[in-house]
Design brief:
- The radius of gyration is 19 Å and the shape is globular.
- Helices cover 37% and strands 26% of the residues.
- The chain is built from 9 helices and 9 strands.
- The protein is α/β, with parallel strands linked by helices and 251 residues long.
- The strands form 2 sheets. The chain has a 6-stranded mixed beta sheet with strand order 5-6-7-3-8-9, with helices on both faces. A 3-stranded antiparallel beta sheet has the order 2-1-4.
- The model has no long low-confidence stretch (mean pLDDT 89).
Length: 251
C-alpha cells in the first residue's frame, strides 16, 4: 500500500515588489492507494498535484509528513522503493539519439534484470504498446503519440508494483490515449496500484475507483466518482469540482 501521511511542501517566492513570501504547494495531504486500485488525482494547474507526485516518486522531499510504500520509507529504503514504482511525468524527456529498443535495454540494465530475459521483455512491451514498427527508429523521429507510448513502455520494463502517472494522455490522439488507458486497466487487473493525475475529468470518471480533488494545495473532496457527483448534486466530476470551490474563478 502507498500511504501519504500529512504531507506538506513549503516554497518561497519573490513578489513583484521584491518581497520574499512563503506558500504551501501542498498542505496536510493524506490518502492511501491499495493494490488493484486506480486513484485519480484531479485539480487545475497550480493545485499542487505535480509537487505531490514528485514527493511520492522520491524526486522531491517534503517539508513535513511522510510517505510509506509497503511500510518502507525513502529515508531508509530509497532504492528498494524505486524498484517497486514507476513514475511518468508530463515533461519526462527521453534520449533523442537512442532507439526505443536501446532505451529499453538501458532500463533493463539499470534495474538489474537478468540479461537472458531482456529480449523477451522488450518484445512483449513493444507488442503491448504497438511499438514494434518503430522499435529501432531514433526517438527524435517519433510522433507525439509514439513518443508517449515509448515513455510509458519504459516504465513497465522492471514490472513495478505501483505506477504514478502525471498527465499520461495529455495532448495525445484518440488511438494513443486508448492504448495507454487500456494498459492502465490491464495493470489494475494484475493487482497493481495506480495513481493517475489528469486534467481530463471524464477519463477519471471512466477508469478511477476513487478520486481525490485538490484545490490550492488542499484536498477538498475524496470518494468514488459516483459518490462525489451524488454528494454535490451534479452530473459529472467537472461540475462537482466547480460546485465544491464555489463556481468558476479565473485565478
Amino acid at each position: 500500500m502507498i500511504e501519504v501521511n500529512n504531507i506538506s511542501k513549503k516554497f518561497k517566492k519573490i513578489t513583484s515588489e521584491k518581497k520574499s513570501i512563503e506558500f504551501y504547494a501542498d498542505d496536510d495531504i493524506s490518502f492511501n492507494v491499495k493494490e488493484g486500485e486506480i486513484v485519480g488525482l484531479l485539480g487545475p494547474n497550480g493545485a499542487g498535484k505535480t509537487t505531490l507526485l514528485r514527493i511520492l516518486a522520491g524526486i522531491m522531499s517534503e517539508t513535513s509528513g511522510n510517505i510509506k510504500i509497503d511500510d518502507l520509507t525513502y529515508e531508509k529504503d530509497s532504492l528498494e522503493i524505486k524498484r517497486k514504482i514507476s513514475f511518468l511525468s508530463g515533461n519526462t524527456k527521453l534520449y533523442k539519439d537512442l532507439s526505443p529498443y536501446e532505451l529499453f535495454k538501458m532500463c533493463a540494465e539499470y534495474y538489474k534484470i537478468p540479461k537472458k530475459d531482456h529480449e523477451k521483455i522488450i518484445k512483449k512491451v513493444a507488442q503491448e504498446f504497438n511499438i514494434t514498427d518503430f522499435l529501432h527508429n531514433r526517438i527524435s523521429s517519433l510522433s507525439t503519440g509514439q513518443l508517449q507510448r515509448v515513455n510509458i513502455a519504459r516504465c513497465v520494463i522492471h514490472n513495478p508494483k505501483y505506477y504514478i502517472f502525471d498527465e499520461a494522455t495529455s495532448g495525445l490522439d484518440v488511438i494513443s490515449s486508448k492504448v495507454i488507458l487500456d494498459f492502465i486497466k490491464n495493470e489494475k487487473a494484475k493487482n497493481k496500484g495506480i495513481i493517475y493525475s489528469t486534467h481530463y475529468m471524464e477519463e477519471a470518471e471512466n477508469i478511477c475507483d476513487r478520486v481525490i480533488l485538490i484545490h490550492q494545495g488542499k484536498i477538498i473532496k475524496e470518494g468514488t466518482p459516483k459518490s462525489i457527483i451524488k454528494d454535490t448534486n451534479t452530473t459529472n466530476l467537472r461540475d462537482a469540482f466547480f460546485s465544491l470551490i464555489g463556481g468558476f474563478k479565473d485565478e
